[in-house]
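Hi there. Long-time user, first ticket. I'm pasting a complex I've been working with (about 801 residues overall). I'd like to know whether the download I got is complete or cut off, because the file seemed smaller than I expected. Thanks.
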Amino acid sequence: METVAGMDAVLLGRIQFGATMAFHIVFPAFTIGLSAYIATLEVLWLRTKKQHYHTLARFWTKIFAVSFAMGVVSGIVLEYQIGTNWSRFAEVIGNTLAPLFAYEVLTAFFLEASFLGIMLFGWNRFPPWLHTLACIVVALGTALSGFWILAANSWMHTPAGFTIRDGITYPGNWFDIIFNPSMPYRFAHMMIATYLTTSLVVAAAGARYMLAARFPDEARTMLHMGLGMLALLAPLQVVVGDLHGLNTLKHQPAKIAAMEAHWDGTHPAPLVLFAWPDAKNERNLAEWSIPKLGSLILTHEWEGRFPGLLDFKREDRPPLLPVFFMFRLMVGIGLLMIAVGITGSVLWWRKRLGAARWFLHPLAYGWPVGFVALLAGWIVTETGRQPWIVHGVLRTADAAAPVTAAQVASSLALFVLVYGVVFSIGVWYINKMIRTGPQPFMAGPESLPSRPLGAAQPGAEKLP
Amino acid sequence: MSGLAEILPILLALVLGAAVAMYVVLDGFDLGIGILFPIYRKEAERDQVMNSVAPFWDGNETWLVLGGVSLWAGFPKAFAVLLPAMYIPLLVMLLALIFRGVAFEFRWVAKPHHRKWDIAFAAGSIMAAFAQGLILGGVLQEIKVEGYRFAGGPLDWLSAFSVMCGLAMVVGYALLGATWLMMKSEGEVERKARRLGVPLLFGLLGFIALVSVWTPLQIERIAARWFSVPNIFFLAQVPLATALLAWLCWYAIRRGSLILPFVSAVGIFLLALVGLVVSNVPYLVPPSLTVWQAAADPSSQVFYLVGVSILLPVILAYTAMVFWLFRGRVKPGEGYH
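Hi, the file is complete. Here it is re-exported in full:
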């Protein structure tokens, strides 16, 4: 088989999909949460008429625009990559999954993209209610997009409602395909993750301004809203995550065994806090664990049994190290978020938030933490599905396109280069906008410093 | 073959055709203004040019996603052949679209250091258009297929013909962009667009003529399709209508009409698309996969068509609403940012 640097087209294709997806997933996750936040701010502004809600909505809309553009361009790549690198997968699941992607485009993408124009450029052109409506529609579109893509993704983990003839899947029941067994859990888990991630970014921006004693009204609102969401959603995420885990145990026990580094299914499982799983010799090195707690969490019984890695053939086990460690990273950050949410809420309740610099300082730098947890969780679930691309239906090794390893390697290099440059600059610009901070509203045509203020727009008030 | 299995692929092919047509027209003009970006040297002009499409570009590009996903959902076998076959031009197109897409937002944030994003916007637009032409040419000149799988090499798409199609696409989109600016801008921007409109129109007509001669000479089945009796009597209407629209476009540009140049340029594009369909029907991957051979399972097609028939009219309605809300011409120095 043709290889590049010892890697064949399948491995290179996996690295490429993983890399482009890791870049992409951050932006939609942020825009799902942020669009909901902006819509909330606008509704609050319409109801209370308090100016700082409006200022904040405009501020975050600018950041939303940059993130959304990066999400769109990196997302188109993925759709086409399914065909270019994984055409056998595209063919095998085309009958069952492609319509779900099609529904995502029809119900969500057009909605977001069309109303985005009003959201970004309609501040002065349209009445506030129409602008607010556009924000709500965009938020709805992003959530709908999440619904379809997670339905499709869940189906790859827990396929249902289909039959196989000559290696190709055929749809049986569309309801079962869409609402496949892991879908409700994965959807809830992911949506909460996007809101948590965004809340942390908002709270961090608030902390930054609070520490610098800038934009006091805006900073307080951001801190309160961000920390409040963390305090509410972070504990909820533990419950949803637990339910999702039980669902995974039922349908993908090998993934759970890898997450827990649990080898021997004949004994109750300990909760492994730390270990170095040694896949070759089938044991854990340097294990540090609490006996039977793993069984209690996963079976809700002290003496409960669930399959260990030894119950699966070697070729059916997922790669251990990423699944095991990324799971711990995700859970660790989740617990940290609970601590931040509760600490912040207590400080807020005791009216000491503004003075608690020891709390605000780390918070101000904590904005990327949610994205790290999101990516870690995504690595756990997708790597944990290996060696399957569609669990029990198609192995990743059999899913690739008839293209050369050289093609995949060179496109991988280009994607890494371009994404690295373009999206680093994008994140740098977002940081620059946050540094500049929310600008107070000016009546009249929205204008950048480089452009003359003179030209009146239809519907805009005249400048004094 | 049962009646349903006969008809469904035709309906889906119509949906696919509509998505491609919408994409070519809508993203055509906004790639077109990117292609024309280098002729606008002043910052204020470039602001005005970009603002004329800023509220729409994202919706326009979504038709590309619909086109891709319609091909996949309707005709998975064709999707699985065409995409690997067009690996490199698709890669170029996607990378180019990244640069021009982010430029819409980055350019404003970067000001006054926005020159690099001006370049990214223009180069990305030109490369994306060129790559789309390469893909068109690569598909028209026939892909090597064995047992429903792509069986060719990574550079099969590259030929004098596909490069010519690439250039044709750049010129054609530039015409759409220029006629868009005639309709949506004022002042020096509009004047420059009008000056360039006529040469672009003749350039596009030249390329259309070239493709019309080249393909029947190269591929016998296309010659038989057009020049056999009685086909020739019906099909001769396509070039005749193209000539008529071309004259109308030329006249409207010269006369200073607002909307007519754009409408007639769109008409020319749609007729070119009709011509390509006539040449290649019923093939999706000429000459090895017909729409029936490539079609998805009937249940999948029905499920998709239900969604399309409900949602596509809604999408068209709110797309039209957004174009209407942002109606009117962008004056110099005016924008939404």
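A couple of notes from our side: DSSP finds 14 helices and four strands in chain B. The beta strands of chain B are 145-146, 149-150, 283-285, 289-290.
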